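Usage example:
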Amino acid sequence: GESVGLHLPTLSVQEGDNSIINCAYSNSASDYFIWYKQESGKGPQFIIDIRSNMDKRQGQRVTVLLNKTVKHLSLQIAATQPGDSAVYFCAENISPSGTYKYIFGTGTRLKVLA
Amino acid sequence: EADIYQTPRYLVIGTGKKITLECSQTMGHDKMYWYQQDPGMELHLIHYSYGVNSTEKGDLSSESTVSRIRTEHFPLTLESARPSHTSQYLCASSESKAPATNEKLFFGSGTQLSVL
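Running the assembly step on the lines above writes:
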């Protein structure tokens, strides 16, 4: 069923417009970041990743930007489609020493308006 | 589409019951994880495993336990369910060997647990 998501920030965009979803991460030592998309009733799906030695990476209709100075990550979706409606999470890897750990952000709900 | 499966999808159960949430993956991944997610909230790691006979506790304290007897199977057990355990439980796996810092997590569809 549908997650209530009462506490999720929501971004509403018109179909065809570009979407920008932002994420602030917590640890300046994080060296790997992932954006996930979670549709209602499903588990998170990988969208795109970026390492800390990059500031931009492009995929199909998606671009991730990394600003390490202000610890900020953004996901840009070009020509947003109804199928893009979902909750989007960023995740940072916080243990470059080798022990695997990810911290997930609270998520942003993207609503695509027809 | 990742081949990782969770059963049941939904479970409603009374307080005090013992439950096991199943998670299986057919990708041969060594690393597997359990996350807990409340509605509208972030994912919290509760257990993970680097391979057979390896289990570790995650960041969020949990009364659940896990086992990893086979590579493909990572069940989570609650000995005595309570209403505070009501949540969504997500299983994930990744293919990297040993601890690594650039690996993708593949998630199952989750089990929505409601304890009455």
